[in-house]
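Example record

One chain of 107 residues, shown exactly as stored in the release files.
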Amino acid sequence: MAERGQITGGLVDGPLAMDNAVDPSAARTKGLKGGVAGLANILVVPGIDAGNMLAKQMAFISHAEGAGLVLGARVPVILNSRSDSPMSRLASCAVAALHHAHAEERK
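Predicted structure tokens for this chain:
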């Protein structure tokens, strides 16, 4: 998409392994050059399976809680994992409530 001019205003590179995308030392060790390697701000995945793996990988490594919301339906849709913590479930509910309130204000 970047090559076709559909993505503008940023540097696009890849594919990059996770360590090469977010760790400058790993990118240097592998001899990767460019403005993205080791410094990525946005990670794009090819499909929902890879996205699921990436999200779980990032949450596990950073010991972070996540929140998720499916957009495009008439009402907010929350898709939590069976393994999500109560805090993650609550955060998803909060994001859904905020999104719904914002959508109602725009009507």
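Notes: The chain has a mean pLDDT of 89.
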